[in-house]
What we know:
Blueprint: E1 9-10, E2 17-29, E3 42-54, H1 66-80, E4 83-84, H2 98-115, E5 119-128, E6 131-135, E7 142-143, E8 147-148
Parallel strand pairs: 2-4
Antiparallel strand pairs: 1-7, 2-3, 3-5, 5-6, 7-8
Amino acid sequence: MKQSSNDNLVLRANKMYEVTIIKSFSAAHLLAEIGGKCEELHGHNFKVEVTLGAPDLNSEGILIDFRLVKKWLKDILDQMDHQHLNDLPFFKGKNPSSENIACILYKEMQDKVTESGVKMLHVKVWESDTAAVTYREDTRIEVKGGELR
């Protein structure tokens, strides 16, 4: 986003509780047409962080039952664990990159999470100890004057 020196960026922040569940899985993949070693079959021990949020707690004083979120995430990751990701329907027509894994996990979790009264905030996928990607939707930055970008 380009801004002039007169623009003041404002991030709107309301109170928010967040829950993050972390799980891992191992899988092989190859990334077509990106060049380098990643075009060859290789594997990762992926770590996945799913973060949900809502402004208020439920009547039991919790955001959401951790067990539900863990089960939903496990059900999806079990389909990827110890698989060749390129062969899975999730990745038909797309590279099974960490970026696409994060997006798919977000979208697969979103309906269940929304039905439970909380919001998907983001999914982070670590492909190594030093490299991760984050996928989120509905990120807004307000520019002074009310224009959203």
